[in-house]
Amino acid sequence: PPADDDAVDLYLRARHAMRRDWYGGTGQSPLALLDAALARAPSDPSLLAAMATARARWPNGAEDLRTARALAQRALTLAPRLAEAWEALAVVAGHLGTGVEAARVLRDARGHVPRSALIGARTARLLGEVSTLEAAHAAFATVLSGGETTFDTRCYAARVYLLGRQPAGALALVSDCPEGAEDEPLAHGMRARTALWFSNKAVLPPAPKSRRGLAALFVHAAIAAVNGDREQALEVEKAMVAALPDLPFPVRPFLWQLCAEVLGTLGLADLAMDRVRSAVDADLADRAWFDHCAAIDGLRQLPGFAALRATVAARADAILEALEGGSPEGSHPG
After folding, report:
1. Which end of the chain is more exposed for a tag (fewer CB within 10 A), N or C?
2. Predicted confidence band at 268 (pLDDT cuts at 50, 70, 90)?
3. DSSP 251-302
4. What is the CA radius of gyration of the chain?
5. Model pLDDT for residues 44-85, shown as the tens digit of each residue
6. Distance (Å, rounded) from C-alpha 153 to C-alpha 170?
7. How far apart are CA 74 and CA 55, in angstroms?
8. How many other C-beta atoms are found inside a 10 Å radius of the C-beta of residue 60?
């Protein structure tokens, strides 16, 4: 964190806002807070990295993304061993280009900060999408054994358990989030996915007080779907789709995945396949979800699914090659 006390306060408030508002609509934008912090400490690499991530996550256009890249590169020039700066550059690369570019940044980062838990966690998240479940479990086990992990890292590790049809393992990683904490939307989202994938009403989270933001909308849709309220679930799923223009491009495949999960749980296979196609059209590379998500089990034998899977697998192979330089289908992290 920066040395200036006021800048530290602004920085911490901005980090809180970023965590609460990661999918939009649930908190204060961090941009104004980070602008104020940078006015006090304009050359602080931690602030520059945080602003790079925030501008990539909440861009007003291509110019904001180019600015974000310049900020991340400046942070790295000032502090080449700052893990937050490498992570920021990876986030920006993913927003500007493809997962391949982000993977290359992470590979370079591991050469500069080989023992960074932050870079290890970001790498594990990527492996959890493009590699085997065994490789993802191994990567997360290494990260989690270090003890200094953020709650969102545990949520991504929990997703690997869900994909492996181990809901109890997933819930064990996210069950200790206090009510009202900044990570509560993440915890509730994971519980909602668990309930949705395995038709388990007992683990549903409470309904959010509003429907602002993708996370809140998804929880409302999951609650309705698991409780068998098709009309309500379809109404909220439609609202999720309407939120698409407000989401950064890299988040859009995730929206389509969530919609497919809701519709798959409702047994609406044709509609769910439309959402899967939209996810693939939006550059989805999440092979693990395609192969293992329980909520779309009913789609895997439908015409066209195998072709979509092949497209996703080719993207995953390219990302894994950029990250590890190894064989995709059987690779384990080095």
Report:
1. C
2. very high
3. GHHHHHHHHHHHHHHTT-HHHHHHHHHHHHHTT---HHHHHH-GGGGGGTTS
4. 19
5. 999 999 999 988 887 777 788 899 999 999 999 999 999 999
6. 12
7. 14
8. 9
